[in-house]
Amino acid sequence: MTESVHNPDQYMAALRTIVAQGRKRIGFLIGAGAPAGMAKEDGTYPIIPAVAGLTEQVLKSLDPKYTSTIAALKADLAKDDIETILSRVRSFSQFLGKQEVHGYNGEGYDKLGKAICEQIGKIVSVQLPQSPSAYSEIVNWITGAARDTPIEIFTTNYDLLFEQALETVRAPYFDGFSGASEPFFDPVTIARNDLPARWTRLWKLHGSLGWSGRTNGEVIRVGGKSSTHLVFPEHLKYDQTQKAPYAALFDRLRAFLSSPDTLLISIGFSYSDAHVTSRIDEALAGNPAASVFAFQFKPLADESAACDIARRRSNFSVYCPDAAKVNGTRGRWSLPSELPSKDWGPIRATYWGSPGSGKPEQFLLGAIEPFARFFSASRSMQAYSAAPSVAPTVAASIEPAPGASS
After folding, report:
1. What pLDDT does residue 136 have?
2. CA distance 273 to 84
3. How many Å apart are CA 222 and CA 199, to the nearest integer?
4. Averaged over 348-375, what is the pLDDT?
5. How far apart are CA 9 and CA 391, in angstroms?
6. β-bridge partners, 26
7. Pairwise CA distance, residues 277 & 273, whole Å
8. Which of 124, 149, 175 is the last residue of a domain?
9. Does residue 405 fall inside a structural domain?
């Protein structure tokens, strides 16, 4: 059987044209892998660690009195990352009462859970570098064109990096909260989408630093670095995501993908989170005029969760360093030896090249920094006026289905 191949020039030319025009409904899904691929102000990496690094830092920072309890919990769990550990801790805090397990009763585990959240808050509460960053380049692209529809950013991250990037350039955004003294969550505004298109929508699917809860269960935004309302995986996540504000935010994700002529672009998201992935899967099944482009950091063979959706949904495409799965077809990248036009060299360099000294060339956009530069560079008229012709299968993966509104 002949091996399928994909030409990155064709796919990226089509995408550049779309993102430069300002007419298509575009959203981003930003996962934990995005800030993990960003540099700090001093040039070291990462600005915020991914789950493995976060786990190591949090556990080291906890009071030594919890050491034996954490070790016992890790021995009981199939996974020992900080999110799974916290899920177990919160579970024990709810049903143990005065009974003790691994040295603590329900009240003790409640205090441990709060200590873990406090440490997570300290680690992810970082300042965006003053120098240009991936988030600032994405925001510059957002604000660089008049748009028929707003850009919507969905993120599972708790940090305030996008808020900082938007506020630095005085770009208005709405995150679901209204008010000044104790901003309250307003699901009606989310559902009706009444604000002007120049207001970016920023949806924190798993909560955020600065969110807090009242005794009646209502979530408010208090600002600062508190981290009491973060949602984590396992059994508690389902219960929590059925409540405000999480239910409304997940409904917004589904509504976005149910709209005609919609493109959701993900970066740093593994698709192993069933609560987010199931809503994307359902929406794509019901709306063939929507598309998802998943830009992944690992080789295609290692991105099983994303490839599983792509196997079922032809409007879900996976782009990895070595290969891609587009329109249901899996194939390795094959770069033509000749440029499609004389001006295409600098454009190709935004998505194809060596990720580091001595490393072979590959598709680059699974990492947040080249991903952001690709979008920022798309504002150049030359970047898409010199684009090569787009094959029908490429256009089909981006353009709306016949009869869909534009």
Report:
1. 96
2. 12
3. 21
4. 94
5. 11
6. 263
7. 6
8. 124
9. no
| Residues 229, 88 share a domain | no
For 48-70, what is each residue's pLDDT tens digit?
998 889 999 999 999 999 999 99
What token pair was written down for 167?
């506020």
Provide the residue range defining the domain that includes 317.
Answer: 5-47+127-398
Q: Is 397 within 8 Å of 326 (Cβ atoms)?
A: yes
Cα radius of gyration (the chain): 22
Same domain, 92 and 213: no
- Transcribe 296-319 into DSSP letters: -SS-GGG-HHHHHHHHH-TTEEEE
Residue that is last in its domain, among 64, 89, 124: 124
| Residue 7 one-letter amino acid | N
Report which of 174, 186, 143, 162 is spatially closest to residue 22, judged by C-alpha positions: 143
Give the Cα separation of 88 and 234 in Å (integer). Answer: 8
- Alpha carbons 136 and 134: distance in angstroms, whole number: 6
- The amino acid at residue 166 is L
CA dist 10 and 340 (Å) reads 9
The answer to whether the beta carbons of residues 266 and 28 sit under 8 Å apart is yes
